[in-house]
């Protein structure tokens, strides 16, 4: 495969995005919510040039939008090693109507471990941000990160 045609993807937090990219996402949302709104009206409303909008519109997507398309992602949980941790995590995943595709739990070191889960979100209305929030709220989970998505 020609390396020039291979596109790389990155996960990036919203707070570090340039203002023009954030406005592009807002415009895309506004256009989706109101099909009668023209691109010209939307860019004027959000204070962005049409050229900037066209530059970014096909290159930036909310994470949930990609999850809706692909339905699969992998997360890692950093946990304090306590009896029943994996069961609590799996119960939480089940309660939000998602399926676990693969599980890996590391050997605990200094009372800390990791749990890596590949998850299928097909059939679940829960957003990926809500999944992370729910998992972070489990006692003895101190960090949750997305490490990959199918695209």
TrEMBL record:
<dbReference type="InterPro" id="IPR008310">
    <property type="entry name" value="UPF0735_ACT_dom-cont"/>
</dbReference>
<dbReference type="GO" id="GO:0016853">
    <property type="term" value="F:isomerase activity"/>
</dbReference>
<dbReference type="InterPro" id="IPR045865">
    <property type="entry name" value="ACT-like_dom_sf"/>
</dbReference>
<feature type="domain" description="ACT">
    <location>
        <begin position="74"/>
        <end position="149"/>
    </location>
</feature>
<comment type="similarity">
    <text>Belongs to the UPF0735 family.</text>
</comment>
<protein>
    <recommendedName>
        <fullName>UPF0735 ACT domain-containing protein Sca_1254</fullName>
    </recommendedName>
</protein>
<keyword id="KW-0413">Isomerase</keyword>
<dbReference type="InterPro" id="IPR002912">
    <property type="entry name" value="ACT_dom"/>
</dbReference>
């Amino acid at each position: 495969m020609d390396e020039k045609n291979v596109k790389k993807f990155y996960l990036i937090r919203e707070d570090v995005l340039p203002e023009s990219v954030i406005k592009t996402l807002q415009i895309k949302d506004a256009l989706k919510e109101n099909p009668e709104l023209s691109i010209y009206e939307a860019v004027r409303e959000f204070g962005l040039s049409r050229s900037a909008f066209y530059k970014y519109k096909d290159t930036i997507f909310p994470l949930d939008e990609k999850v809706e398309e692909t339905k699969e992602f992998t997360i890692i949980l950093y946990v304090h090693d306590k009896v029943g941790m994996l069961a609590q995590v799996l119960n939480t995943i089940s309660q939000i109507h998602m399926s676990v595709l693969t599980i890996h739990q590391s050997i605990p070191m200094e009372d800390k471990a990791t749990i890596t889960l590949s998850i299928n979100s097909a059939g679940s209305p829960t957003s990926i941000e809500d999944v992370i929030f729910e998992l972070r709220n489990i006692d003895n989970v101190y960090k949750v990160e997305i490490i990959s998505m199918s695209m």
